[in-house]
Amino acid sequence: MQTKSLISALMLALLNFANAGGPRCVAKFDHGVGVGLLKETFTNRLYCAYLGIPYAQPPLGELRFEDTVPFIFDGSATFDRVANPCVQNLNGQIVGSEDCLGLNVYTTYVRVSKRPRPIMPVLVWIHGGSFTEGSSETDIYGPEFLLDEDVIVVTFNYRLASFGFLGVADLDIPPNLGLRDQTEALRWVSRNIRRFGGDPRRVTLVGWSAGSAAATYHLYSEASKGLFQRVIAMSGTMSQPWAYNFKAEWCSNQYLKQIDATTKEEIKTRPAKFMVPIEGLKFYYFTLSYECYMPSGDPIYAPRNAYEMVRTMAPVSDVPLLIGSTAVEHQNLFNQRKFDMAQSNYPNDNATTYERLVDYLERRRGGNRSAGTFYRKLASFADFSYGEQYFVEQASRHFRAPIYRYRFAFDGPFGYAKNDYYKYSIAHRMPGAMHGDDLGYLFTPYNYRSLMTEGRLNDTLIQRSVKTQRRMVRLWTNFIKTGNPTPNNSRINQTIWHPYNDRDNPQQARKFLNIDRRLRLVRDKLPANYYYRLWRTVFGCLYYFECDFLYDDEGKGTIEGANDSNNLQ
Q1: Angle CA(158)–CA(164)–CA(167) in degrees, nearest 5?
Q2: Distance CA 502, CA 498 (A)
Q3: Which residues form a coiled coil (predicted)?
Q4: Alpha-carbon torsion angle 177, 181, 186, 190, nearest 10
């Protein structure tokens, strides 16, 4: 009885605070009140940060390895700390918590008067991290510049690795629990974002890397239908080799052996630190490796394998799509001098076929190309470029909504991957925008505050980066607001961005926006690239068992129409 009285008194105090004068961050729910933090953008604009709002019940105890259960907020709370990251193996250490399903809302909807204000569009961010790591934390990508464009930003955690992407049919463990968490976060936004000044009918799902691949799965899911109105996919699609698990049963069996469990009860009661093996179960693609926790077959999100879905199915959510990648992605990290498919995620895993493919590629390389250059360029297509190109070409056949394509080529100091994460590797010294470098030109750059403190924002190179960032933020927020990055023929840097699948103006179709020191539309020449065509041939054998070319004059058949171009556009 005393506890109930205490809660009532606290709620009354919060309501009195909500009705008091002056700027404040208070969100009123059906059965409670939440208080956030009052902050300022770099332009001194007030905004509210509501951190660590639970959107689902903690998946603990009986809820471990079960479908997502929505959280019903009842009472009062101060939302001033981000949720724990979900359990993950970070550089060999198990960190995080299973009680992690929280989200953050950043909004310039600050209560300064009782006058109504226009509701704002919403960006919902799905973090990357190979489906095995990452969190909703915004230290690397802060929301300030997006908030200045009157966009609400929502970030959230979802279950990772074995907790989110295991799936064991024999033990009644559903697959793709991480994707189900994402859908529940979107449902929370749909139900509650008006309380923060947001428009539930203008929600843009934005993902990067694995988060980008996840966003494309939601395009094809009935469970996510109506929860978003646009998608931005940055450096990842469901058609990437690391985004769909053809060998999910093998992975789950190997996992159960590693943790020495045979029943659902055993894996529900094991301590979390034993549930994420230090030595991950990995697939290898040239020099990149990925743990085998990734989306797999599932009636809700993947009724067919990812390649067949995009090839044969119209999207459930036929909404405007903005999609692209960086100029070199992971190419700067490739150093393998041989094609190795000993443990890979391909449907065609015949050992003899692998041997013939390795021999075939060596003959293709010939004596005129160095092994390093040849396999680095081929690997770039195998691991990244081909999957994106495949998705865009197939989606263009089925989407009625516009598809806008880009390539981020600006190589500047806001690029987090090159200038911080890979600072001491060879990648730092090689030219080109890497995987993740574009994030510093959409979100607050990781080094912006230090540059501002040091008085370096007026340096020539920094000014170029600031100009590029402002253009990119404007293009992205235009798309978030209207579904068109240059609406009403509004030019940015004298450029109008036409859809890649422009049916009204075919002369402008099949062009992407190259984002560099200046913006320009470029004709997509990738299908004519030698390495693209070579990988397309290999892809047909690995995924569709179309391997006759290996037996055509001992694998010397030509790649029709290919030219040996170094153009990776």
Answers
A1: 155
A2: 7
A3: none
A4: 120
Sequence-separated (6 or more) residues with CB below 8 Å from residue 429: none
| CATH numbers and ranges of domains, the chain | 2-551 (3.40.50.1820)
- In this structure, the strands spanning 46-54 and 102-107 are antiparallel
Instruction: Determine the Cα–Cα distance for residues 87 and 21; give it in Å rounded to an integer.
Output: 42
* Tokens coding 298: 């599932």
| Separation of alpha carbons 96 and 82, rounded Å | 12
Distance CA(281)–CA(343), nearest Å, equals 10
Orientation of helix 351-365 relative to helix 530-544, angle to 10°: 170
Q: Mean pLDDT for each 10-residue chunk of the chain (569 residues)?
A: 39 41 80 93 94 97 95 91 92 90 95 73 96 86 93 97 92 96 98 96 97 98 98 96 92 89 90 73 73 93 95 96 89 60 80 89 81 81 89 95 96 78 65 86 83 81 89 96 90 87 88 94 91 92 92 58 39
Describe the strand order of the beta sheet including 26-29 as a list of residue ranges.
26-29, 32-35, 75-78
C-alpha pair distances (Å), 222 with each of 13, 408, 507? 42, 32, 35
**Quick check: helix, strand or coil at residue 138?**
coil
CA 337 to chain centre: 29
**Which secondary structure element, helix H or strand E, spans residue 254, and what is its range?**
helix 248-258
Q: What's the full length of the chain, in residues?
A: 569
